[in-house]
Amino acid sequence: PQVTFIAFDGTEHTVDARDGDSLMLAAVNNGVPGIDADCGGGCACATCHVFVESDWASKTGVADPMEVSMLQLAEGVTDTSRLSCQITVDDSMDGLRVRMPESQH
Ligand code: FES
């Protein structure tokens, strides 16, 4: 599936994600700036913070309690905040669009 990461300044990067990979890996494997993923996907760093556009929230699901507590360390958290390492991409997410916060610009 193709997913699009939108930087704080509006720059868009659309990449091919592999079914079953995390959204964070799709960014890192394709060199998308702004997703540092310092902890390598362990839900322990919050440098993979994204905002899921509202039409897509039903597909990406909700954060589990560990993700919710880690998100408290991220800047600019909103109701649409997720850690991209905790979202598993599947084919139903083709066209997914997520935004990145100012702190990851
Ligand atoms: Fe560290 Fe997602 S990569 S919390």
Give your account of this protein's structure:
With 105 residues, the protein is α+β, with helices and mostly antiparallel strands. It has one domain: Ubiquitin-like (UB roll), CATH 3.10.20.30. The chain contains three helices and five strands; from the N terminus they run ββαβααββ. The protein has a five-stranded mixed beta sheet. A hairpin with a 5-residue loop joins β1 and β2. The longest helix has 7 residues. The protein is globular and about 30 Å long. The relative contact order is 0.30. The structure holds FE2/S2 (inorganic) cluster. FE2/S2 (inorganic) cluster binds next to loops. Belongs to the adrenodoxin/putidaredoxin family. One of its GO terms (molecular function) is electron transfer activity. This is 2Fe-2S ferredoxin. InterPro entries: 2Fe-2S_ferredoxin-like_sf, 2Fe-2S_ferredoxin-type, Adrenodoxin-like, Beta-grasp_dom_sf. It comes from Parahalioglobus pacificus.
